[in-house]
């Protein structure tokens, strides 16, 4: 997708759906985001830039770590998601230490040297020009500032997303898969490419850690998890675009249901997932 397409997607298509399912999505992604936050070593009193903050789950967690003497600036393209994020911050009583901005981190006029940490939970893989975007983020860091983000490994390493999508694709039209490096969830699947992007953007000492293992799928019940898969991600996008008949949709539902049944464990629904945590210094 181009950046204009991303803007439309996160405001008109995906954003409202993520708002509706925010609690389930946060429950699914929070453990991975926490690992990246630990690697960032965010401390009290620091200023943090949260890139692609979405509905604000990561922002609230960071605000708790920086404390009353710290500050969080959270940016995202999606107005619906930002509106929910602001509401959540006010309810949590931390709104005074957070500033939410609807902006594009690639080109946003960020305060030079204004931040101790740039952090992101799955918010940096959608950049149209990743070198320019990370160069812009680097300028926002103080001289000893640090970068930490979590992103997905290659799509074939993530059956939690791809297995239901492949099953659904037997019954409803899916768009042709984009090139591996195209902006999207799996754009940063090649760690060597990402290291090169960070180096070209001026970052020093980029490091990567692998996170691989079972991921708890969102939802307290099987039906909640199924509902989430039918609304969010590639299956949800395909259903919105294709507008299938009732019979066709029913076949998709049963195909996704069958895949999820294969993910059942005594602990609930869990599926193989693989992510990278990247860290670097401003340099």
Layout: helices, strands, pairs:
Blueprint: H1 3-20, H2 22-40, E1 47-51, H3 57-66, E2 71-76, H4 79-92, E3 98-102, E4 115-121, H5 130-139, E5 141-152, H6 159-168, H7 191-200, E6 204-216, H8 222-231, H9 233-242, H10 246-261, E7 264-265, E8 268-281
Parallel strand pairs: 1-2, 1-4, 2-3, 4-5
Antiparallel strand pairs: 5-8, 6-8, 7-8
Gyration radius (Cα, Å) is: 19 Å
What is the molecular shape?
A: globular
Q: Could you state the CATH homologous superfamily?
A: Vaccinia Virus protein VP39
Question: Architecture, according to CATH?
Answer: 3-Layer(aba) Sandwich
Number of domains: 1
Number of helices: 10
Distance between the termini: 31 Å
Oligomeric state: single chain
Estimate percent helicity.
40-55%
CATH topology: Rossmann fold
Largest sheet: 8 strands, mixed
Give the helix/strand class. Answer: alpha/beta
Fraction in beta strands:
15-25%
| Secondary-structure element series | HHEHEHEEHEHHEHHHEE
Instruction: Return the CATH class.
Output: Alpha Beta
Low-confidence stretches: none
**Average predicted confidence as pLDDT:** 94
Overall strand count: 8
Describe the structure.
There is one protein chain. Strands 1, 2, 3, 4, 5, 6, 7 and 8 form an 8-stranded mixed beta sheet that branches. Helix content is 45%, strand content 23%. It has 10 helices and 8 strands. With 283 residues, it is an alpha/beta fold. It has a single domain (3-154, 180-216, 272-281), classed as Vaccinia Virus protein VP39 (Rossmann fold, 3-Layer(aba) Sandwich).
């Amino acid at each position: 997708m181009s950046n204009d397409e991303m803007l439309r997607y996160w405001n008109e298509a995906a954003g409202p759906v993520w708002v509706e399912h925010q609690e389930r999505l946060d429950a699914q992604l929070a453990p991975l985001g926490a690992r990246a936050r630990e690697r960032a070593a965010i401390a009290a009193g620091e200023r943090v830039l949260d890139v692609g903050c979405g509905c604000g789950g990561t922002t609230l967690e960071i605000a708790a770590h920086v404390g009353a003497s710290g500050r969080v600036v959270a940016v995202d393209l999606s107005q619906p998601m930002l509106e929910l994020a602001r509401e959540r911050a006010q309810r949590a009583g931390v709104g005074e230490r957070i500033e939410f901005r609807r902006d594009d981190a690639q080109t946003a006029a960020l305060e030079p040297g204004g931040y101790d940490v740039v952090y992101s939970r799955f918010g940096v893989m959608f950049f149209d020009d990743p070198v320019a975007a990370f160069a812009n983020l680097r300028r926002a860091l103080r001289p000893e500032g640090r970068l930490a983000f979590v992103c997905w490994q290659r799509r074939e390493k993530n059956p939690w997303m791809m297995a239901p999508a492949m099953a659904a694709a037997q019954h409803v039209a899916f768009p042709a898969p984009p090139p591996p490096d195209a902006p999207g969830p799996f754009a940063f699947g090649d760690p060597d490419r990402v290291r090169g992007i960070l180096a070209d953007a001026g970052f020093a000492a980029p490091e990567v850690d692998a996170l691989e293992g079972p991921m708890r799928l969102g939802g307290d019940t099987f039906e909640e998890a199924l509902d989430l898969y039918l609304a969010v991600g590639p299956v949800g996008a395909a259903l919105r675009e294709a507008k299938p008949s009732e019979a066709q949709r029913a076949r998709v539902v049963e195909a996704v249901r069958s895949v999820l049944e294969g993910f059942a464990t005594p602990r609930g629904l869990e599926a193989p997932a693989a992510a990278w945590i990247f860290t670097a210094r401003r340099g």
